[in-house]
Design goal:
The protein is mainly α. It is built from twelve helices and no strands. The longest helix is centred in the middle third of the chain and has 28 residues. The N and C termini lie far apart (52 Å).
Length: 246
């Protein structure tokens, strides 16, 4: 489910329009630039919308128009797939407007911006950590928020990414015959992510690490646990070859 982006309309009275809302450097009044940004946004011309809204922001509009413009800029960056810039804009909005009604929306958008930067497990995992931290903050601050269910799904996805990374590193240690390091990494993964799938995979490589390290009894113990708890696992045939050895 994608973030539900909105263009936040700002209704400004005549008094606002007459009081410092235009800039001599602008070809149009601020309210017209704002509406031009809306039109560009709705047509998917996000770079045009960004240019128009940045001009609005630089003209020092009334506080509410300024806040709405800032959140629109963040949304435009996100939909233009400029996720680093989007995350920065959402965070900046939260810092500048901590009591604004859209601060929860900005927190959610910031989390999605980090989440959208996640790539393979063999790359930098900082976006995973950042997304998880933001989404967990959202749940604490807005347990009944509009995006709670999606945030919970994203948290599970982030934690699964973390588990995949632990398995990736553990397998690397196995390949390089760094068995104590592999055991430590896989043991930590097993108990840190007990609520997620892939426990059978973790047990398989943990058992292999113990066996390869010469700790056959411990390895067989791990394999027996896998057979008992995950009898339909794809790793069962391979384990039986080891268990059946005299």
């Amino acid at each position: 489910m994608k973030i539900r982006f909105k263009i936040f309309l700002v209704f400004i009275g005549t008094a606002f329009l007459l009081q410092g809302c235009s800039d001599l450097k602008l070809n149009k009044p601020v309210n017209e630039l704002y509406r031009d940004g809306e039109v560009s946004f709705q047509k998917g011309r996000y770079e045009d919308a960004l240019a128009q809204w940045k001009r609005v922001k630089e003209s020092f509009p009334p506080p509410e128009m300024s806040a709405r413009t800032e959140i629109n800029i963040a949304d435009a960056f996100f939909l233009n797939k400029d996720y680093i810039e989007a995350a920065a804009e959402y965070e900046n909005f939260r810092k500048l407007h901590p009591s604004h009604e859209l601060v929860g929306y900005a927190l959610f958008g910031q989390g999605l911006s980090y989440f959208s930067q996640i790539k393979g497990i063999d790359t930098d995992q900082t976006p995973v950590k950042n997304a998880l931290a933001i989404f967990e903050s959202y749940l604490k601050l807005y347990p009944n928020g509009a995006n709670t269910l999606e945030v919970q799904d994203k948290i599970r996805a982030c934690r699964d990414k973390q588990l995949q990374y632990e398995l990736y590193v553990g397998r690397y240690y196995l390949r390089t015959k760094s068995y104590p390091a592999a055991i430590a990494r896989l043991e930590r993964a097993l108990y840190s992510f007990v609520d997620l799938p892939r426990s059978d995979e973790t047990l398989f490589y943990l058992g292999q690490a113990y066996v390869d390290d010469g700790q056959n009894a411990k390895g067989r113990e791990i394999y027996s646990r896998l057979l008992k708890e995950y009898s339909k696992s794809k790793f069962v045939p391979e384990i039986k070859k080891v268990i059946d050895k005299p």
